[in-house]
User: Fold these one by one.
Assistant:
Number 1:
Amino acid sequence: MLTELRIRNFAIIESLTLPLSGGFNVLSGETGAGKSIIVGALGFLLGERGSSDLIRTGADKATVEGVFDISQSKAIGTMIDERGIETDDGTIVLKREISSAGRGRAWANGSPVTATVLGEIGRALVNLHGQHEAQTLLDTDSQRVILDTFGGATAQAELVRESFAELSRIRREIAQLSSRRSDAERRADYLRHVTREIEDAKLTPGEDSRLEDEARVLENADELRTLAANISTLLADDEESILERLGHVDRALGTVQRVDPSAANLQELYDTGFYALDELSRAVADYARKVDLDPERLEVVRRRRELIFGLVKKYGPTLEDVIDTGRRSRAELDLVDSGSFDLAQLETQQKTANEKLIAAATRLSSLRSTASKKLAKAVDGVLPDLGMNGGHFNVMLTAKSAPDENGAEDVEFKVALNVGHDARPLARVASGGELSRVMLALKTILARADSVPTLVFDEVDAGIGGKVGLQVGDTLRRVAEHHQVFAISHLPQIAARAHNHIVVSKAAKGGVTTADVAVLEGSTRIVEIARMLGGDPDSKVSREHAKELLETATSS
């Protein structure tokens, strides 16, 4: 449970520490004192989106910190431990801040965590019901989720979604393959022409570059052979050749070395150069002999280059593009021949996936049918406690023509709020206050199976008062037998039912408005309840009335 909430420089709050206890905690105070801001700060801590607009005027960052006792929840401790966060003493401290530059940071027990991890932990610790959440009851998707949660069908609903997703994937593959096959059949003659033309050419990657090099050599073969012969003559083939003349250098170096042995390195350099030129001479002579004057081969190369040029012009701009076009054309043609087999396989998979979806949806329908009756009966049992004595709740399941990702039926909540009236959709019959009470009835029932330790209700008393307020307060007190409950309320009837009463007030500090809290006990709580009753909190009558409310709560 949440034991302490610390807020600093958040909206109008400069610095505030909110102590909470087990059971039913209520937060009261004048309108605009900052009650909903406290709930907003808690939501920010638990992973809701935040912006620099939340920062108090004149501050550079806003910080919210919550201390949670998880010693009684092994599952939550395990979940947190799996994320590498130590909780040896059964306590988890969450902290989140946002700077004026919009940069946010978060920690869990001092370890930095991402906003995603913070949200995962927060959702396991607190279930926060905002003041406008009752409106979600008008959404059929929300109604379906509530029914599945109550009926323990969440996992089965997920299985239906997964089964439908698999069936949809196969259907898309069938549609795509059928479309591609139809396109290929329409283009079959053209594809056969392209495939035959490219495959008959027997192209190889880089062939155009190799043919260009070969053609250049063949076209200049006579000149190349003449140049090579001249080089060979200059190097070694006459008395004035370079190698012959280097003999004089060799003899002169020998004389130098005999006189100065330290010049031996000159001889080594000479030997290296001489052997290199000698090897060059032999290589040039071999090259001259190998240069081939082959007009027939030149003609073959030219025709091959013309063929490739024509194909590149049609299917290019590069030879690799031509080869790729041939591959793709062959693949499309193969699709005409193999498509029937592939489609048959996919249709078999589709049949299997559809059978799996129907089986999963049938099981889900069974769970929903059972849950709908139990939920209607359970809500009917709670409505009188919330001032709706003639109310009747109903869950309608309307079969679909075929199951989809949400199952084989639509789910709709209907209610008859007065005796003798037919049940109608909530959106058509329920006022704001009645809708809030229906939501509270559902939350009361779902709370019994809810593993989240703390439930927060913001403005739970919207649209109600008098005796109904007492009934709502009693209901929240009963919920608090299984969970820590934290509620904001303007009604003294609800506040009097709380185990722990906190009041929020605001005042100017240093020229800037700020909010503060105080835990009420004894006479201070009597004064606050008297104020909430609308009379003079200092009058004896108002205080007696407040005492009576508190005494009634204690005895109930």
Note: DSSP finds 18 helices and 15 strands in the chain.
Number 2:
Amino acid sequence: MENYFLDNQDLQFTLNNLDIEEAVKLREHGFAFAKEYDHAPSDFKDALDSYNRVISVIGEICGENIESRSREVDLCGPHFENNTVTYHPLTQQNIADLSKAGVMGVMLPYQYGGLNYPVSVYTMMTEMVARADASLQNLFGLQDIAETISEFGTEEQKNKYLPGFATGEFDGSMDLTEPDSGSDLQSVRLRAHQDPKTGQWYLNGMKRFITNGCSKVHLVLARSEEGSGDGRGLSMFICEACPELVVRRIEDKMGIHGVATCELQYNNVPAELCGQRRRGLTRYVMSLMNGARIAISAQALGIAEAAFRLARKYASEREQFKKTIDQFPPVYEMLASMKTRITAARTLLYEATRVVDLRGVYTHLCDTLPADKMTQDIRDKQKYYNKLAALLTPMSKALSTEIANSVAYDGIQIHGGTGYMKDFNAERYARDARITNIYEGTTQLQIVAAIGGVMQRDGATRIKELMSLNYSGKLLRLRDKIAVMLEKHLKAIAYDTDKKDRAYHDLVATYLVENEIFIYVGLLMLRDALKDDAREALVERYILDAEPEFQKNYLKITSGDLTLIDSHRDVIDY
């Protein structure tokens, strides 16, 4: 019997060593919910036990049911006819299995039928679902829509929609992208107008590349302010599937075949304003994007885990020259690199979710506490975790998705010619991985999102904490290597700052963010090795691999060669 949690030692280690007690205690209102709800934990130990049990159940569903259905789902996909999308029967069964397990409202409050779990635990579930079937994660992972309504909607909207999301009766979509806007959401043109007599809002326009655009409930970014042309004229709306909301077509995609990606036409669709006018992009989509980055990081990590395990199994069974190919140094070097990169990505992802959990609870306190109970400490923590989340979530998405692509590619290489054939899942993992560093913001846009926090040193306090842990022996020597890298990194940042050249800064931003990731991840892996000696080999491999890449980036940043910009253009134009 396969269980995608119990067979993953690293995921179990992560859950049981993740420092989320503070966030859980605040989320559970000091565990007072236990007096009101039977399934609410009485303390953190009880909560951790609950997380382990539920994740194990989902791990079994993924390993026993979802994975075995994934090949047929990939082959057939959803059916589209007469503007109606019908999901494959096996996809429907997968959703039914997850709904029966009670995990369609993982993070929703108890009062709406949710489990009130932190983002970190939900992310582990999405990682396992993606390992079993990456396209299914695009359906299971849309719970951020319900979370947005929970955070910003009215009480009437919460009572109307959230119980349905928790049971799986409702599914959702984020309707953001338009045919001409792409990542430039400030240029969204779909129009929202309000009937002056009734107060009813109506939506008119087009959306494209909408994951699960055939859903029952839609969160829609629309232009509510007549004459506006930027993000300040956008608001968020909730609408439901209706005859006026037409699915014009579904995309024929390279991968992620099990989920429908839709083009939508809004013909005077009735809608409700969600939150305040004019804050659709500046607050609500930005909040959604944090969740989306985390979800796609987990999806990418799940695909990478699946690709690595399949490659390792194949290499241990495939014989050439009278021995299995995993005994050849070039092959086991690839496998070791794959494992190291996956562990590194997982380490950063769950550091990011820990921070997002803390950001969430302190933001909630700032929004809800009366003035006489608000303290400066709460305000300071909310500000700190907000900045740190804004740094770590794009760094995590950049790292996880690029690693997923490289691991999936290496998985095909280890399979040789058979990896190129549909007889093995290796080629599917490569097709599925390819979208992860594109949607919800390309890797290049993640660099744009992260570079401000790198330059402003928003992660400096956390890096100092990790640097000061009680290392000894090999771990101390590895920490000292990180210290040398950090010293150079700060010099590179100062060099770029002093140069005061915007074009040069934009050119070297990727190298600066990559080096920040090398330092941050190296320290996180050192921290974990303090708790488990067996992880020493992983962190040593990671840091030794990172050193030459870090140095190459450092030299590029500090070269000061402005002709690099022109030379890039010359190469393109040749």
Note: The longest strand covers residues 261-274.
Number 3:
Amino acid sequence: MKKLLTILFLLSIPLVSLPGKERIRERVYISTDREVYVAGDAVWMSAWCIDAATGELSSFSKTAYVEVHSSTGMVQTGKISLDKGRGAGRLVLPSTLPTGPYRLIAYTHLGASEEGFDPLPGSRMLSVFNTLSADRVPGGVEVVDELPQAPAPVSEGTLQVTAADAASSSKTRILLSNQGTEPVSFSLSVYHDDGIPAQEGDHITDFVRSIRSLPPARGFDTSLVPDYEGEIIRARVAGTDAEGVKAVVDKYAVISSPGSGENLYTDLISEDGLVSFYTSNIYGEQEMFLEIEDLDRGNVCHLELLSPFLDLPAGSFEPLRLHPDWASALELRGVGMQLEKNFDADTLYTALPARTHQLFDERDCKRYNLDDYTRFPLMEEVFVEFIPEIRVRTVEGKKTIQVWTSNPLGGYVFQNGKALSLLDGVPVLDQEKILSYDPNLVKRIEIYTHSYFFGVRSFDGVVNFVTFKGTLPSMEFADNVRIVDFQGCSIPMAYTCERVGSDYPDYRQTLYWHPMLTLAPGERLEVECKTPAYGGRFEVVAEGLTTGNDPVRAATAFEVK
């Protein structure tokens, strides 16, 4: 199976470099909802992954990596799932960030594999003020007596935007139109302009100019495997010596997260103790379970995850200018940040389509709600009494769960192979632990009667035991199992605030954000934006690319009285 995966990967290489065609050279641009934040704010992001060799959106990589740097190093990270070169995400700045200038850079592993790769063209400069602490980035803040001037707004391309003044706690209408001959894909942001100017930095025009002037590629690092299906999660064997690693070579490594069982992947441990799980992207903050199957008793080794972030050089930083007159504006920003955290609700967000994989077909699922039947004290009794699709057999001295699977000749037949047993979506490889598990903790049993491949591992059927709590209660795992926090791809969302309630203390600084809007030539779009409970001047910024890779950026402003 490992040889088969190697062959499949080699077959994918022509997608990266075809004879007579320049290799894909990916570059990522991120637009953000604004450029001035307070520590603890969310940074809303829209991503474009461009093939610099053709100037078109790249459909190859499925994951973009985001790093936020100060002059002292990397301070925050994020991941964005890409679909046909576009993606959206949300990154929360730590509330402990000191006041200072920061740079947001983004890349794919395919793009970063290029020799001499420079992540700075198109990177975003972020001004971050900590309203809860006096900490500052060393040498990163300059207190000035003269109010800094904001950079002149940059507008370019065929996109036009207008907005009407409005009253507080009301609505304003924003009208966008595409005056060009090509479709436009863009992000739209509406935010409070409180007089604190953003730092000078690159925008979409600078990014396009940089990729059009790239010098010829000098070479590529083939050890950095591109995420062509989703993030490739890497791990290594730890907690043991070389002899211990040798003892687990070619054993199965398993990674999973609680849920439906969709996030379950396997790989064989290589001779150097490394593992690569080829995923289809995992979303959100997760608890991941790492385990080595059939580990010899007494072997204390386990798996630990390797960081996918490259911690790339972030260049030099100009000091952040700080003026005493901004105290009241920063105080309002700090209040808004804290209120949004305390009153954060799904009603402020609009879910966007996410590129997912469907491993299990619900039409093939047979469910048994155990409360519909007589409760039995032993799991084996549950199977015997009313679940004909499951049986228990002793194989090589161990009790094994087997499932009916479809017969190519028609009907169903019990397979002699081992079924996969899951508890709340997490594999329990020692099935005797499932057989001794308390059935009173189980709400239902879900049975899938087909054979399934999870990475390099196959099973004849799947049985998922779903508990009432959904948190694997009272299950004791083997000593080598590790539960680690995992940062998945950001769940794509728009911050439209369409359903802001009258009881919401509305001091939002970003009023509206949509990362992926499109307009055909001549098309118009009207957006309704809920205004906050305070007045002032608000900026509207649309930024994106045409299908011909021409930059578009349009801005306007309106007053809330």
Note: The first helix runs from residue 2 to 16.
Number 4:
Amino acid sequence: MKIDKIDRIILSLTFIISFAIYFLTFSRSLYFTDSGELAAVSSTLGIAHPTGYPLYTIISYLWLQIPFPFDNITQLNMLSSVFCGLSTVLMYLILRTLFFNSLTELINNNLSFQLSSGILSIGFAFTSIVWEQATTNEVYSLHFLMVNLFLYIILRAYFTENCKLFLLSSFVLGLSLVNHLTSILLIPVAIYTFFKKNEKGFDLSVNRFKHFFFLLIPLLLAFTLYLYLPIRSSMQPVFNWGYVSRSIDKFIYHISGKQYQVWMFSGLDAWKKNLNVFLDEVTGNIGILIIFVYLIGLYFIFVDKNKVNAIFNFIFAPFTLFFSSFKKNGRFIFIFLTIAFLSCVLYSFNYAIYDIQPYFYLAYLSMFIFLALPTMHYSSYIKKPLLSLYILIPLFFIVNNYSEIDKSKDTTVFEYTRSIIDNLPQNSIIISSQWDYFCSAFWYLQKIEGYRKDIVMIEKELMRRTWYPYQLAKWYPEIVNMQSPEIQSYMKDLELFESGKQYDPISIQVNYINVFVSIIEKNIGKRDIFLTPEILLIEPHIARAYRQIPYGFAVKLSNQLDTLNFDDIKINYEKLDLLTKNKSYYLYDGMRLTIANNILAMIKYTQFIGDTTQNKKLEKYYNLFIKK
């Protein structure tokens, strides 16, 4: 398949159209979970959370050197739009490669196939699973791009029997693995494609196996990018997650994502939950393509003289239309897509995490291609006025998803973080485990934007990892001393736990609590100490010796009962209500519940101290956030 002038025009349009709408909808602010941390790491060329993501870190750091008129977080969000726009271009190339290598006769209406391929590629750009990742800085946008690039190159290698392209596909697979470990799901497809010998079965000769082992060279060459992690870690960057330069064990622990393995292969409950999520996403992401395939089947019921055959073909339309369209290489394409689909599903359905949708990408991609190919093929059989109906596919996704995915004015996380920090006195210490809403965002705001450098923020859950005390000691040496008895005792237990050796669970928990108790005791007379409320639910012993005073979105620790002057707490509840209501993403609901509970705690405290003059205002705000 040669790329002609029309192809180049359509390729350009697929990127321009997809990126233009992405540009209108990508976030101009921080988002939930890892957004702040990844932006901070990219800004400082640091080390990100496991598995390290060196490819993303290096590319995003270089991207930030381009002098766009945006702040860092906005520029990084735009980079995700670029990645997803490029993956749309590759979708077009994948469809064209599969289509033109599966025809048994010459094409008389090449333009209709090119147009339908372009329209379908743009449609895929605005499926929720792709569009969502185009709006915020995350590693998944680059992951989608690398998956598409690998599939395009290895398909080209297969159809052209080009050894150099196989070597290139191996290198791209290695880079993709360096970016995100779920790229391992591409290996079954890679093996099948390499040993498949066109329509002649499999080539399992000794010579073929020798060539296969040669493919390990570019794969391992790509893996050398992981060396960025220990080299850069040894240079003590501002963000040095894992401190992987300490030992080979710490390096392997980090790149293998060992701490996440507790959520893998979680049993039948995870399967049921993820199956429901997957089916919901299928309806939204490829449902209209299924409708189009059945409309094509319905069309042939009216024009086919053999009504019984036409009705049978209609009932099983996705399969009958596919195999009737592609007799040459049709079986290869079907098995290729099936392997990709099953590899993804069998892995991702076992993974018990909330944000599972991006892990389904390879399965959605396979299903989309499977339905798109016969839709392209039968476009030449349908009259041109009907062909224009194909425009409905991207229009459907744009109209259906725009309001939900548009994050151009979404400043939820920024507003929430400021609502906490702006109300803290100078030089306060705050202990929190609100990574999704607050901690990650504050890392970026404090270390990159220079916001409230006086505040000491300690992430409670990260204290369960051996690297984090070192990071705290570097950031806040006046607060965390690695030589203190509490830290020393705790680190001994923590090293045993992290290295998989036998440890005393009671001792490690007691020493864990003692670290926080020590920090509070040594600073409570010198600094104001705050916790976010979930700490009191999870680890109540941390604050057992102090009065707990609700203070906006935090809880102040004090040696005495203090009055609560609501007017001193500056929070724009109405704005937070507007930003979080009527959103389907579970973290918005979680934030609303958190805010409501914080307001309720203040109401109860004012009743406890006998000062209810501010309760009407508090109750008004509480009622805002308990509404669905």
Note: The longest strand covers residues 547-551.
